[in-house]
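Can you give me the bound-state structure? Components:
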Amino acid sequence: MKLWSLWRKREKELEKEIQHHLQMAAAERGERGASRRDAEAAAKREFGNVELVKEVTRDAWGWRWLEDLCDDARFSVRMLLKNPGFTIVAILSLALGIGATTAMFSVVYGVLVNPYPYVNTDRMVHLTVQETRGNPLFINLNGPQLQQLRQAGSLESVAAMQGWNLTTTEGDLPEDVRAAYLTSNSFIFLGVPTLLGRGLLPSDAPEGQDPENVVVLGYQFWQRHYNGDPDIVGKKIQLVHKSYEIIGVARPRFTWGDGEVYLPLKLTADPTRTYFPMTRLKPGVTRAAANAELQSLLEQFAKQTPSHFPEHFHVTLAGLNDHFVERIGGTLYLLLAAVALLLLIGCGNVSILLLARGTARQHELAVRSAIGAGRSRIVRQLLTEALMLSLGGAAIGVAMANNLVKLIVDWLPEFSFPHEAAISINLPVLFFSVGLALLTGIVFGISPALRSARPDLAQVMQANARKTTAGVRGRRTHSILIAGQIALTLLLLAGAGVAMQGFLGMMRVNLGYDPHNTMSVGIPVHDDTYKTWEARGTYFHQLLLKVNEMPEAVSAGISTNATPPNNGWDERFEISGKPAAEEQRARLNFVSAGYFVVLRIPLLQGRIWYESEAMHGANLALINQTLARQYFPNGGAIGSEIRVPALKGEPPLDLSAAGSDGWFQVVGIVGDARNDGLRNPIMPSVYVPYTIMMPVFTQILVRTNVPPLTVLHAVREQIHTVDPDQQSDRDVRDLDGWIKHEPEWEQEHLVATLFAGFGILALVLAATGLYSVISYTVAQRTGEFGIRMALGAMRKDVLLIVFRSAAMSVVAGVLAGVMLTISLNRVFTRWIEGSSLDALVLAGVILLLVITSGLSCFIPARRASSVDPTVALRYE
Amino acid sequence: MKEGYRNRIELLQGTLDLLILQTLLWSAQHGYGISQAIRANSGDLLQVDAGSLYPALHRLEKQKWICADWKISENNQEVKVYRLTAAGRKQLTRERSRWEQISDAIGGVLNPGKKESAS
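Here's the bound-state model for the whole set.
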């Protein structure tokens, strides 16, 4: 804008200067006696063409390039508006490609490039270890251990967190609030200023005293619970009957630990209380060095509290985003590659259109070059047109991307990306899109521009008399572009086919339980309540009875840690009288007898324990079919004894029945149900009464005779009657909902849907490209067809000619696409797990492509064959 | 037409710049004044047309050899007046000595005998 006003000013000054010149010249002539009119006319004559003088003077300013650019842009817009059909198809082709690419890039940028708002995230590490089977595990430490960790030489600072479910006790029903208790250095550690008020400070939890009753609200909670009240700081909030002063509100991207409220944490010396550590390495310390130092420290800790560590481990610190990169990184890059293909296909389309139009405009360009336009000038003009198209496409594309981004964010697996990530069309993403637009403009614009800028004058002038067939070279370029488009489309469609096949396969998996009309209600127990085994057992039992007596409830059961499809604690177990050659592991589940009724898991052999036995904490167990088959291949499972050595409570949090680490008698075998997700094989499973081990939470499964979520409020009221402070988890879903919450379900759903969408778009684009080429050739060869038909060619002959011209490039494209797909199959199988290309999918894709291509050829071909020879010969 | 103008500028470029700088050496002038001064001082032989003069002026201004001020004339009009800068003064000396070299050289070519006797 500044440049523009400067330009206007200089323009005005030049005008003034020239007018002054003319006046002076006229005045001098007037003094010599000429009449006023003659003097003015003579002065003008002498001066020459005013506009021309202005133009050459402006050249001296060195702004000519800018002026040319504006001229080119204006001219391009005029040319594009004159061909609205062409312009719309071209811009839409680009908008689809650029929009999809922008959306995918903004997800990649948000999740993988810049996910965290915290300071020095590159040096922040999670304290993780690998146990013998290579699985990574987060390690929690107790208070004294944390103090010792702070002394480690490779660490700059250590903070810690503990999560608890609290409730607000203001409404009619207690509302669940996820609280993150943070050590008082945490806000300084994370380094993100608060939105309102202040963060937690060391003075909020003085050494050796109870922490102050202060709270920092999470942004989401502040929005939901207080409607974003700007004057909230200084007010009080009641959490489990305790009053806290609100001292600040966190920023939207501050979501550490997914906390809804942040409270000061006091580390206790109690060895059973563990905390989640957050650590930052000193600058220059490598992870390998830190791993080595921490290994001996953690081994020492493991001796103090063996139940908090795996038996054998080595420390492998993990970067903040490592876990997410591993989970979703490949998928995101795969999708980005897919949209890049889509963009390439769109570019191919515009290239084809421009080439076709370039040939149509050959006459115009030849005339321009004949009257002296330089080759570089014409190339520049055509490139400007291409850039106008791509920038137009980018503008529409970015607008579309905005919606697509929201859709993708909704579909991203909930725990496969950091919740701090700000996934939106932001400045870096916009830069990317504009850069992309310029790049695509050059990519699809350069070849048509170079070709069209080299018109063979003599040939063009001659050809104008009658449109003859295009030169061989032009047709070859078209064929290559079409073949390329078809190959890439085939690749995308095959990818979509593979992804959809994988997803459908997962949907058809035999679950082994009946998820319909059943929901799981999570129940977090408050700190310092129901502290004895008897009290907690009775409490859980009462909750179960209350829910069960509802009229809508068909059946109910307790499933502390056993809600499928991914359930149970992974534990080592022993079988009495059968010394294990290798480590035996099973999923250990704490359930009530009603669990099997609710989920309709069949009892295959033996019996289920009675409620009375459960209330005594009897050492009885059920096993699943897989365990029976694997460890008792010759039968004899029932009556055998198994033992889980690590099954021992840690009061006051985890309460276990006496003798819980002793021998359990197997009383029955139940059918297999999914317990390790939808994709992995079913693991051996052991079910014991929920009273054997009661941590500070449980879940009640309830099967209802109405859609379960409609009675959630009633369930909560029932729970309320047992304990007025007892809330339930905010995130209550039916079991179908939990299946859809599985990361593999969400991931495959995302990939399959997006890939299918991109594949269809690619197909539409390729069909448009083919259609444009054929229509254009047909229009160009109208005269030729007229002659052929006048000489006796039949309609079908003409049809055949048209089809043959397209068939070559389609066949070549399909072949190239098949080869491309097969060679990239490894990529598919790696990133779209549990699926690989099969011949049926490939055949289906090829068929779809061939039919679509045939249809796109048929319409223009029919037009060609219905040409009236007399009209055709007179044509132009 | 446009190309025609440009060619003439190129032909005159070296000399026109020299003439403008020389004209501005003693007093500041507006565009018309410069063209009239060149005309008068060359005995009406050299007529600088506007299509060469103004591009040259604007180019010299861009090179900072001359600079322009807006002044109010007697009949109360804004007038763009050019004057020589310090850099322009130096440039004038350079251009003059180059012009003298060229005219000597051309003189030498046109009158070979004279040159020999002179040396």
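A couple of observations. The interface with chain B takes residues 13-14, 16-18, 20-21, 23-25, 28, 46-49, 52-53, 55-57, 59-62 of chain A (CB under 8 Å). Residues 79 and 385 of chain A are 8 Å apart (CA to CA).
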